[in-house]
C-alpha cells in the first residue's frame, strides 16, 4: 500500500494531517494508509455536521433563510430549494473528505 507515496514528488500526508480536519484525517488514515479506524458513523457527530443537522425541520427539510412573506415562500417551495442546497453541501463534504 505504501508504494503510491514513492511515486510522488512530496509526501502529502503531513499537510493532510496538519489541517486539523477530523474527517480528512479519518479518510487519510483509512483510505491512504489502510489503517483500522473507528466507524464512519462517528463523523456524524462532528461539530460542523451537527450544526447543519440541528437546523433540520421535523419533516426532514431545511427552512429557507431568505426574507419575504412566510406564505409566499411556502407556496414557491423555497424550503425544498434550501433542502437540496444543504444536501448538496453534505454530499460535497463527503466527496471532498473521501477524495482528500
If you had to describe this structure to a student in words, what would you say it looks like?
By secondary structure, this protein is mostly helical. The chain has one domain. Helix content is 57%, strand content 0%. It has six helices and no strands. The relative contact order is 0.12.
Uncertain stretches: none
- Please identify the structural class as seen in this structure: mainly alpha
Global mean pLDDT: 81
Give the total of domains: 1
Following the backbone from N to C, one meets helices and strands in this order, namely: HHHHHH
Radius of gyration: 19 Å
Summary tags:
single chain; 100 residues; 6 helices; 57% helix; mainly alpha
Give a short summary of the structure.
The protein is an all-alpha fold. It is built from six helices and no strands. The model has no long low-confidence stretch (mean pLDDT about 80).
Write the layout of secondary structure elements.
Elements: H1 3-6, H2 13-18, H3 22-32, H4 47-54, H5 70-75, H6 78-99
Helix pairs in contact: 3-6
